[in-house]
Design brief:
The chain has eight helices and 15 strands. The termini are far apart. It binds 2,5-anhydro-1,6-di-O-phosphono-D-glucitol (AHG) and manganese (II) ion (3 copies). One of its GO terms (cellular component) is cytosol.
Length: about 350
Amino acid sequence: DANKKSQYALQTLTTWLLDLEREGTIDNELATVISSIATACKQIGSLVNRAGISNLTGLAGETNVQGEDQKKLDVISNEVFSNCLRQCGRTGIIASEEEDQPVAVEETFSGEYVVVFDPLDGSSNIDAGISVGSIFGVYEPSPECRIEDMDDPEAMMQKCVLNVCQAGNELLCAGYTLYSSSTILVLTVGKGVYGFTLDPLIGEFVLSHPDIKIPEKGKIYSFNEGNYQSWSKEQQAYIDSLKDSSQWGGKPYSSRYIGSLVGDFHRTLLYGGIYGYPGDAKNPNGKLRLLYECAPMSMICEQAGGAGSTGFQRVLDIVPTKVHERQPLFVGSKWEVEYLESVLQNKP
Ligand code: AHG
Ligand code: MN
Ligand code: MN
Ligand code: MN
């Protein structure tokens, strides 16, 4: 009969978005923005996979507002993301790790979503062919700062900054794409977390991880222990305790760290455990950026039943004061993050 599910009924990102539209969870404008992000990720994935062949490894010769030496692919991925978001006509403002300031998009003709993104995460891994990713978040424009006076650049800039500096609680959509053994797009629109694997034969993101739930506890911790010496004594005590197998029935934790937030986070989401980038003596707020790294990952983790914390507060509650503000980040299994918080806060 016509309603029997055909064995060839493919659930793709496109059909998943249409289902969400049909049930009224998202509107057509947001579906269009998400589709344009998926297109950007397909393009970036193909550039990343062929970087060594098309002379796209190595440095661009510029530094970004973070003070980092930009890789060629940092710059190109940023352009790909920006172009796709402009062309979709539903984006009002974009903020990127690779742009000093947020940018108002002229090509908007319907829907004025605010999109924040890290176009290429873990880019120090590119030249070694180790997994990298892209991270994104989508907000409604904040009503009190509608973009009217496009001709007053200073006022415009202020409004753009206000539009992107919203707490993670306001995120309509958060997601990332992992460029690794597979290209996997993982996202949430506030009703659970879904993963789509790119089928290169048809160029579609196919549903591969419906309704991801992170294990309540896990035996993997993911920290750059090279910074151990400059961590607080509570932070050091936390890591020491994970290594003390007598506390864990004789089975110590395993350490896994590849230096790409997207890769380390994706493994944590599926296997359980905890990823952390603590503050330290040199950088009390750590290294990761709240707007387009900490907040989107925290929303995804919470939607999967986990937690996202600075060690002292819930990441999603923080209202950014600056576009590129950094915050310490601990994300993963709820039990693991709560244990970390209890040690950092000297709670029994
Ligand atoms: P990005 O490449 O977007 O600047 O982000 C790099 C981040 C994150 O991906 C990763 O977890 C972290 O930097 C690694 O930092 P360390 O090399 O200091 O461990
Ligand atoms: Mn960077
Ligand atoms: Mn990053
Ligand atoms: Mn980046």
